[in-house]
UniProtKB/TrEMBL annotation:
It comes from Nocardioides lentus. This is Permease. InterPro entries: DUF318, UPF0718. Its main location: membrane. The chain crosses the membrane at residues 24-41, 53-81, 93-117, 129-153, 160-180, 210-232, 239-259, 305-328.
């Protein structure tokens, strides 16, 4: 009978190394080199050149604001604690909701950080409605986002005003609705974790947020450029020309593509076939609720909470954008 000798104390079982970004990029580069005889003739196609021009223009315009937003959010996360936020917010939720909405102007944050920040506020005794209002407002009404919107829509200051008002209205209305009925919705009390949730260091926060948001920026820019280049103009005009269909399609686009709020205005501006109100829907819905935020909220506050909160925010954000856009634009 054979016996298996035990591993010596302190020894570690070697683990298989996971494929990382470097290996993935290397595979893509080698594949492109191997397929260059097939790929090069197709890269000279007129439509592909148009797509690449639009794609690069969107990314180049958006990246500086993305970097600025990530840096500012990291500074705020490390200099302003949630204890300070809890002290400056009024104790009565009805008054705390608009105060938290306006606090988003002075205390910007990325969408990625807004969920753990709001969870930390709830954990420290802030009313859930107030914390959720801040979660919705901070990525949407801060100065970086508004300046980026002004650059994306030059000579259209009403678009900037409309975005600010519609985003703030979304946060406050959802907050007040949560004061009214939120107590009936099961909400798991979050435990542990820091305000930013990226390991504590300033550079770690910046690196995580930039790489995370840049990926969605590239995806969103690629999709927007493809829509403008490859979708037949007749189809695009028929969707954009139907008021309800245009609004629903832009809200769905914002939810699925999940772009960062510092860059989404450039993608919206590139969709020239759509009305300014439909573009506003995209810019208001995205920072308030997208697929990554929904998944974060499921993991943080529980499935029962998300099943009520996610559709509520989508409906209120879309309605606020349509209401404000119809008034101002």
């Amino acid at each position: 009978m054979t016996t298996t000798s035990a591993a010596p104390p302190g020894s570690r079982t070697p683990r298989r190394r996971r494929v990382g970004q470097t290996e993935a990029v290397l595979v893509v580069v080698l594949g492109a080199l191997a397929a260059q005889s097939w790929l090069v003739p197709r890269l000279t196609d007129e439509a592909l050149r148009t797509w690449s021009t639009v794609f690069v223009a969107i990314v180049v315009q958006a990246v500086p604001f993305l970097v600025l937003g990530v840096l500012l959010a990291a500074v705020i996360a490390h200099l302003v604690s949630d204890r300070v936020l809890a002290r400056v917010v009024p104790s009565r939720p009805v008054l705390g909701v608009p105060a938290a909405g306006l606090a988003g102007v002075a205390l910007p944050g990325c969408e990625c950080a807004s969920v753990p920040v709001s969870a930390s506020l709830v954990r420290r005794g802030v009313a859930p409605a107030v914390a959720l209002t801040f979660m919705l407002a901070a990525p949407a009404v801060n100065p970086v986002v508004l300046v980026a919107t002004a650059v994306a829509f030059p000579d259209q200051p009403l678009v900037v005003v409309a975005r600010f008002l519609a985003s703030l209205l979304t946060a406050v209305v959802v907050g007040w609705l949560w004061v009214w009925r939120g107590g009936a919705v099961p909400m798991r009390l979050p435990r542990g974790g820091g305000a930013h949730g990226h390991g504590g260091s300033f550079l770690g926060s910046v690196q995580h947020d930039f790489l995370h948001a840049a990926g969605f920026l590239v995806l969103g820019a690629g999709v927007a450029a493809a829509v403008g280049t490859f979708v037949p103009r007749a189809v695009l005009d028929s969707v954009a020309g139907h008021v309800l269909l245009a609004v629903v399609s832009m809200a769905a686009f914002a939810f699925v593509v999940a772009m960062c709020s510092e860059a989404d205005a450039f993608v919206a501006a590139s969709l020239s076939a759509f009305s300014d109100t439909a573009k506003l829907v995209f810019m208001v819905v995205g920072p308030a609720m997208d697929i990554k935020l929904a998944s974060l909220q499921v993991g943080t506050f529980g499935r029962s909470f998300a099943l009520v909160f996610v559709p509520l925010v989508l409906v209120v954000a879309t309605g606020s954008a349509v209401l404000v856009g119809g008034w101002l634009l």
